[in-house]
Amino acid sequence: MSASQVLTAEQMRAAEQALFDAGTSVSELMEIAAGGAAEWIRRIAAGRAVTVLCGPGNNGGDGYVIARRLRKAGNAVTVIAPLAPKTEAARDAKARWDGPVGTAGGSRGGSGGDVLVDCLFGSGLARPLVPEHALLLRDLAARHRLRVAVDLPSGIASDTGTALGDKLPAFDLTLALGAWKFAHWSLPGRLHMGQLRLVPIGIAPVEGAAQVIARPHLAAPAADSHKYRRGLLAIVAGAMPGAGLLAASAAQRAGAGYVKLLAPAADPRTPPEVVTDTAPLGEALADSRIAAVLVGPGLGRDEAARGRLGAALVQARALVIDADALMLLGPALLPAGKPILATPHDGELETLCRAFGVIAESRRDRALALAKVSGMVVLAKGPDSCVAAPDGRLALAPPAPSWLSVAGTGDVLAGIAASRMATARDPFAAACEAVWLHGEAARRAGAAFTPSQLAERVSEALAAAL
């Protein structure tokens, strides 16, 4: 099983069908999945009373299995089911429960329940909860101190993370069954889920599945390394040199052996460890030792900036394109066959989609479509960032500290990504590594950090990946 794969509802159904075709029955798989979830809940409940809310489908069947397992473990269990089971496996699970089933919360259903387990609706839900079910769920959630969702909180769309209704309750823990779903890593749905844990059920790796970005496994430089072998990164500075300096500070801590600023003029704020090359840009970029180029942070959007972007696009062997450069980029400028990583936030992504004729709704779909039509790897930045490749690969970022929502942190991310590309990473790998390192640096920086303080933590994040 691939612990990091993320499946659509359709992919999940196909993966489960493969298990059925191999001889596992629906009821057997339900016992495996719900049994694993029950063990998590048993530990959390620690002997306290549990209320299990069951729906009519197989998610409700999971609930009956969980209830039976918990009662056997010694917990007091109340089962609430507003609808009768509609699948054969759910009916069998209810029969094996062999205990009372309430149809509404009421005083009996809500009293004495320390832990609520939501098995009302799972990944197959595509429409809002009917009012009586939404009210029941909210009422039970309000009267339980701990709340656990099995697979997904009821009312969250599996493939998008959309909230299918208003005032949906938040949970303390969500137990994903078999594989992660897109909702587990997508806003606004993940805001309702609390801690996330995966319950394995034997699902095989699915070809073409999205992945969750995990801690990279990096290595220290080889014993015979020198600054050029580790990678020379050139950062094209422009009208606002501060952004390029931020990117350079992060890049120096992210693995590259040499970071050089290509600037129209020297800036007295440049620290001594950053080499500034003020030669004409075409001449500076002609250095064959340059492994990667970052262009965009502080570049500006005038004709001079457009010229500096054009020079980088023509001469660089590999590029990271960020910030202002993304607002100037279009199909006519983009060279074919070069490794390019674009790092847009939502506004820049919208501009790129217009320039390249991409029509899509979500950040994820826009990134995938833009990557395919442009040939670039696209790191679409935001509170739920994703990385999309032209061949359809997709990686989703785990949650990072919300303190990253401050000006300048995007320049730090661009510097990290460019540094990773300079160490000979392909754009997709560099983007995934940069996203993880950026989030880890933020965790280590604590609260209310400046972008310079964030950049200073990048080396600690890198050390955590060695």
Quick description:
This protein has 466 residues and is of the alpha/beta class. It contains 17 helices and 19 strands.
What do these coordinates show?
This protein has two domains: 5-208, Rossmann fold; 227-464, Ribokinase (UDP-N-acetylmuramoyl-L-alanine:D-glutamate ligase, 3-Layer(aba) Sandwich), CATH 3.40.1190. Helices cover 39% and strands 16% of the residues. The chain is built from 17 helices and 19 strands. It has helices at residues 9-21, 26-45, 58-72, 88-97, 106-110, 131-142, 227-230, 241-252, 281-285, 303-315, 324-328, 346-356, 363-374, 409-422, 427-445, 451-456, 458-464, and strands at residues 5-7, 50-54, 77-80, 101-102, 115-119, 146-150, 173-177, 180-181, 195-199, 210-212, 232-236, 258-262, 275-277, 290-295, 319-321, 340-342, 377-380, 386-388, 394-396. The strands form two sheets. It has a twelve-stranded mixed β-sheet with strand order 8-1-10-19-18-17-16-15-14-11-12-13, with helices on both faces. A seven-stranded parallel β-sheet has the order 4-3-2-5-6-7-9, sandwiched between helices. Helix 2 (26-45) crosses helix 3, helix 12 crosses helix 13 (363-374) and helix 14 (409-422) crosses helix 15 (427-445). It starts with a strand and ends with a helix.
